[in-house]
Amino acid sequence: GPMGPGAMGGRPVPGYKPSKLDEDPHAVNVHISGFPPDRTRVPHIIDIIADFGPFKDVDVRPGKPFAFVEFMSHDSAMRAIRMLPGTLVNGVPVSVTWARNQPDPPLELQKPTPSSDMIEMTEAKAADYEHAVNIFVGSLPPMMSLPELRALFEEAGPIASMDISHERGYGFIEFYRHKDAQTMMQKFSAGGDMGLLVKWAKKQPKEDRENIPENLDKPLRSARFNPGSRGGGAPRGGFGG
């Protein structure tokens, strides 16, 4: 009930450490560590987190004393962060923190951040310009959602930002790397089945982004947790702690 151990109103346990992610409504990934090695199977993790609210994914590595839990909501994750540290599992207190990797905010909140000063140039010049990463996309199919468009364009490579207007039927895609923008041009310049209009944007950055994420070519997510799977361990990968 609302007065149970997971109640938000409950006083945080002594092991709770405030973090700036406490205030981030998109933070839902929690890192739990300190289990006895024989207690890091998915059913054991579910036992101790089920009180805090619904969760989407449990990621354990066989033989490792930690797990990642992706809660359905920030509030549920926050309850676990505040109330779970120090809980005894087979006599051993567990420690609970926000995972380092959290999901990106929804696309409509991701405004493009200009990577550096922009230079105006012709499309022909942009095609040969080593820092060109911005692509203009027109004739967008109105029935495709932003996540669907993003998934389609990410076939060319990881996207740094999208600024798409469904009302106007066009927008801009910014890749992290010139080579991925080139791939997008090759893939879609003929319009393909969808009749998209794709061309180099006239504004391109003066230089490459400063903070390009590492591991751009690795898939970002572990396989979904499947309650029916044997052994209960997600494959290696997933979100680091």
TrEMBL record:
Biased composition (Gly residues): 229-241
UniProt region (Disordered), positions on chain: 1-24, 204-241
One Pfam family this sequence matches: RRM_1
Protein name from the UniProt record: RRM domain-containing protein
Family annotation (CDD domains): RRM_SF
SUPFAM superfamilies in alphabetical order: RNA-binding domain, RBD
Compositional bias (Basic and acidic residues): 204-220
Record organism: Fibrocapsa japonica
Keyword RNA-binding included in the entry's annotation: yes
Domain of life: Eukaryota
Keywords: Repeat, RNA-binding
Domain RRM per the UniProt entry, residue ranges: 28-101, 133-203
InterPro entries, per database record: Nucleotide-bd_a/b_plait_sf, RBD_domain_sf, RRM_dom
GO molecular function: RNA binding
PANTHER family assigned to the protein according to its UniProt record, in alphabetical order: RNA BINDING PROTEIN
Gene3D superfamilies, per database record: 3.30.70.330
